[in-house]
């Protein structure tokens, strides 16, 4: 099986780009960030503090997170409820950053992620896929863009959904999330030594997809995978 690891900061377009490339290559797309977002949503619903590891760990035994696919699109289920449309808010994003810093949560999800890679050709994105989850991935990519560009993309997405916010607030959230992800003690956001950097600051979506697909196909061809 072939595994592609795509890491990078929040708002870099990892999910949409990885999903599109996976469709083009016929691979299974695994959005690991959605797993952490789903756990973050559960902690918020239970009135817990996502940054409090003891509170989060106490909730894990009763937690049931499932991943399914409808028309090739990943769906997230929490206690049997499809929450795919509820895990993309700024509040849940920060909660995801909080819970993802805990070793108990990462251990809870690690085997699920690795099993998917053992059983399928996958493109898996997240923060530590190439460094921790799939350290022997066939291709590793660090997908990034400037914080201003990422905030603008996120702002446009939120306003299109009718949410009342400002670019300045979204930029502040992006920078806070970056700091939290980079400075957490467990599996911080870091570029794998053998990862190829793909900066999409000056690229539109179609150009970004083409770049990632080109990197993958070229590196797989040189490895004769």
TrEMBL record:
It comes from the Bacteria. ATP binds at residues 8-16. GO terms for biological process: nucleobase-containing small molecule interconversion; pyrimidine nucleotide metabolic process. Its EC number is 2.7.4.25. Residues 4-216 form the Cytidylate kinase domain. One of its GO terms (cellular component) is cytosol. It catalyses: dCMP + ATP = dCDP + ADP; CMP + ATP = CDP + ADP. The keyword Nucleotide-binding applies. Its main location: cytoplasm. The keyword Hydrolase does not apply. InterPro entries: Cytidylate_kin, Cytidylate_kinase_dom, P-loop_NTPase. Keywords: ATP-binding, Cytoplasm, Kinase, Nucleotide-binding, Transferase. It holds the Pfam family Cytidylate_kin. One of its GO terms (molecular function) is ATP binding. It is found in: Cytoplasm. NCBIfam families: cmk. Belongs to the cytidylate kinase family. Type 1 subfamily. This is Cytidylate kinase. It comes from Candidatus Faecivivens stercoripullorum. The gene is cmk.
